[in-house]
Structures are given as C-alpha cells and as structure tokens.
C-alpha cells in the first residue's frame, strides 16, 4: 500500500511527461510504421478494456449495466455526441433499476 | 496584450465554456470512482488538477484502490494516456518556431482530447492566448467536478450514484465506437478487447491478476499484434482529432 499523495504525484508527473516530451523534443513526425500504428491502436484497446466488463459491475444490477452498454454503443454508432451518449447511459441505468426494484 | 491576442483569448473562452460544462458531468462520475478507491475530495481535486486526463485518472484510481506499486501506477498511466503522445506529436507540428519556448511547457499541462481538438481545428499556427483562455474556461470545471463527485456522491441515494457511475464508461464508448464505422481494424480491436477483458475476469487462471496489470498486458498485446498485421496507412493516423474526450 503506497501513499496516496505519492500515487497522485506519479500520475501527474507521468501524464505531464507524455504530453511535454513530444512538444519539446520531437521536431518531425515518427516514420516508424509499427510504432505509429501501435500508438494509433493503443487508445482503442485500453478504453475498450476499461469499459467492459467494468460498466456491468459498476451498477446495482448487471442487467442495467448491460442496458447502458448496449444503449451507449448504439447511440455512438448512429452519431450521438459524447454528452448525449454519457447522459443516455445514466438515464437507462436509472430507469431500468427503477423497473427492476418494482418487479 | 495585443489586439489579436485579445481576440484569440475571447474566442478561447467562448469555445472553452461548453467543454467545461461537459467536464463537470464526466468528472463528477470520475469523483465517484475516486471515492470508491478511498480518496477524499482534496486528493481527488489534486489528482484532477495535476492530470487532466479522464481515462488516465480512472486507471490511476484503479491502481490506488488495489494498492498497486508505484511502478504499476507509472506503467498504467503510460498506457492509459498513450494517446496524448500522438496528440502532442501532432500539436508540435502546429507550433510556430517564433513562439517563445516556455509556452511549450505550459501548453503541455493540458493537452486533453477536447483542447487538442479545438486547437487543431483552428486555422493557422496555435495561438497560446486562445489555448490558455479555453483551458481557463474548462480546466477548473474538471478539478472541481471531481471533488464534488467525491463529496456529493456520498450524500446521493444509491440509485442516483449507480446511474451516474456509468457516465464515464459512456464517454469511453463515445470515443471508441464512431471510428469503428470507418476502420475495420479498430472495430476488431474493440471487439477483441471486450472479449479478452471479459475472459480474463471470468477464467479462474487469470482472475487473480489485478485489473491494472490486466489492462496493461492486454493493451500492449492487442495493439502490437494489430500494428504488426494491420499497419495504418499514411493518411489515416490523423483520425484522432475528432474522436474524443477527456
């Protein structure tokens, strides 16, 4: 178990370095195709890994979590913006848990 | 301040305010995660005010909640915030050589998806006055929203907390799904990530691995395989700019 403030310091420092080093050091874009592809794909893999199954476990009932996941994916797919997707997920969880608690 | 700086500053405030409103909602949800990991509102505020990174902070809170090592924390942040390497690299092409160098260190404090997006979308070289004004308008909302999430998350009825806790995941979904329509490789990566993440959680052999380590290993594995077998074409990587958030 570490110290919370040291954790926060590590978080902030690593995040800053990631943003600062390319801005100050890199003069030209990287030509390495593998590295470029890897950097392009990392965000999608990591965000997907953090979303599922965590979204299903964050709610009181697994059913409402699944409902939120499906709603979010469908809305994002048809072009809803970020705030609409996030808002709709919340509303779906709220309503489905209301229904579940009354069954 | 010159007249053109003043104009850029005003426009930055104008573009930053709607971003700040979105930040309030999402960072509130992040605050609920912070509380679940045992952070108080001061610690959550500090984390947000020093990082300005939704996925990165979320990943960091997972490590804190699991009492991971500092090395695990650093690796986790590197992986979760890897996209900022790309964004800062792209942004470096938009900086004027005449701009005083210290601006680069200041701009680097807040390369978020949205601020990157509006800076890239603006014609010409990046104007620091515009960027700083936009950050002033939305940055505090991010840190304050996280702190409010910790405090109010405590007082709210459980069904409201349950509902709000998915806002962050909704945001992640809104970032990863739209590019899947245009790019089959990204669609495949998202599908495989969902499947493996679920499998690692359920298969007894892997379920003892912490979620932090699981995310690092799977991200590197999946992205490296995709990069080896399906390298991006030269015109594609700029896709980042419309994607997302946080």
| SSE pattern of chain B, N- to C-terminal | HHHHHHHHHHHHHH
Strand proportion of chain A: under 5%
Largest sheet of chain B: none
Helix content of chain A: over 70%
What is the mean pLDDT of chain B?
A: 88
Low-confidence stretches of chain B: 236-246
Q: Report Rg of chain A.
A: 19 Å
Instruction: Count interface residues per chain for the largest interface.
Output: A-B, 76 and 105 residues
Number of helix segments of chain B? 14
**Percent in strands of chain B:** under 5%
Oligomeric nature of the chains:
heterodimer
Structural class of chain A, please?
A: mainly alpha
Model regions low in confidence, pLDDT < 50 over at least 5 residues of chain A: none
Q: Specify the number of helices of chain A.
A: 5
Average pLDDT taken over every residue of chain A? 90
Total number of beta strands of chain A: 0
Helical coverage of chain B, percent range: over 70%
Q: The biggest beta sheet of chain A, please?
A: none
Describe it.
The complex is a heterodimer of chains A (103) and B (246). Chain A is mainly alpha-helical. Chain A has a domain at 32-101. Helix content of chain A is 79%, strand content 0%. Chain A contains 5 helices and no strands. Chain A has helices spanning 4-24, 33-51, 54-58, 62-77, 82-101. In chain A, α4 packs antiparallel against α5 (82-101). Chain A is extended, with a radius of gyration of 19 Å. The mean pLDDT of chain A is 90. With 246 residues, chain B is mainly alpha-helical. Chain B folds into 2 domains: 3-165, no CATH class; 183-238, no CATH class. Chain B contains 14 helices and no strands. The radius of gyration of chain B is 19 Å and the shape is globular. The interface between A and B is large, with 76 and 105 residues.
Short description:
The complex is a heterodimer of chains A (about 100) and B (about 250). Helices cover about 80% and strands about 0% of the residues of chain A.
